[in-house]
Amino acid sequence: KQEVTQIPAALSVPEGENLVLNCSFTDSAIYNLQWFRQDPGKGLTSLLLIQSSQREQTSGRLNASLDKSSGRSTLYIAASQPGDSATYLCSYSSASKIIFGSGTRLSIRP
Amino acid sequence: DAGVIQSPRHEVTEMGQEVTLRCKLISGHNSLFWYRQTMMRGLELLIYFNNNVPIDDSGMPEDRFSAKMPNASFSTLKIQPSEPRDSAVYFCASSWGTGRGTEAFFGQGTRLTVV
User: Fold this and answer.
1) CB contact under 8 A, B42 and A44
2) How far apart are CA B28 and CA B108, in angstroms?
3) Which among B10, B100, B111 is the top mutation candidate for probing chain A, defined by the most A β-carbons within 10 Å of its own β-carbon?
4) Out of A26, B90, B92, B112, which residue is the most buried by the measure of CB atoms under 10 Å away?
5) What is the dihedral of CA B82, B88, B94, B100, to 10 degrees?
6) Cα distance between residue A106 and residue A80, in whole Å
7) CB atoms B108 and A100 under 8 Å
8) How, if at all, do strands A72-77 and B5-7 pair?
């Protein structure tokens, strides 16, 4: 059973486009949801952390939203750049576990 | 701060050998997480420490795996004896606070290959 689902699994868009990455989860009692970026052969870099009491967080061109009732989070990237190319993972934590999705592999074409 | 530091970055070992992975937390952090990443299973939490105490080790695959925090800034993950199916990238991450509700910072990982 997939507890965190990320759609799409891969995405390729031209530079400059705005895009949305989706994350859905099945646990309604989450503490927080976190979006990470992973470059090939590297560790994970935290992008945004949304506590369960919050609806969204923003950092620069990134905006993440959280809807606990529907079990969904989105990561919005504005004015995409080739340097945004990476795998993006969402993760939630609850009382008993920390679960990661399998990621969306994003490629921004110059 | 140099961030979370893991060593070695790469490890190749023969089946049956003992493997020790090392992790240095960010100064001041008090929660430590060990993860394993494979293509088949993605990122899996192995064990979580808070204030040097193991809080949740339900993700540890079996008795061949053990993790310790000999002090507040350092942790080891040991596999004895190692098997080919243990091949993966192992990450540690640290955070401040009670752990689960806080922002985690990851190391660069150790790529383990067991032949």
Assistant:
1) no
2) 19
3) B100
4) B92
5) -100
6) 10
7) no
8) unpaired
DSSP class of A101? -
Calpha distance B9→A42 (Å, rounded):
10
The pair of structure tokens assigned to A50 is 């949304």
pLDDT value at residue A2:
57
Provide the residue type at B74 as one letter. F
Encoding tokens for residue B113? 């290959």
The pair of three-digit structure tokens given for residue B8, joined into one six-digit string: 């070695």
* Tens-place pLDDT, residues A42-61: 889 999 999 999 999 999 99
Phi (first) and psi of residue A35, to 5 degrees: -105, 135
Return the residue matching tokens 């008090």: B30
Encode pLDDT of B91-105 as tens digits.
999 988 765 667 888
Nearest residue, CB atoms, B103 vs list A46, A100, A103:
A46
| Greatest C-alpha distance within chain B | 39
- Taking alpha carbons only, the member of A84, A86, A73, A106 closest to residue A5 is A73
Q: Measured between alpha carbons, how far is B47 from B4 in angstroms, rounded to an integer?
A: 16
Q: Which two tokens stand for residue B107?
A: 């190391």
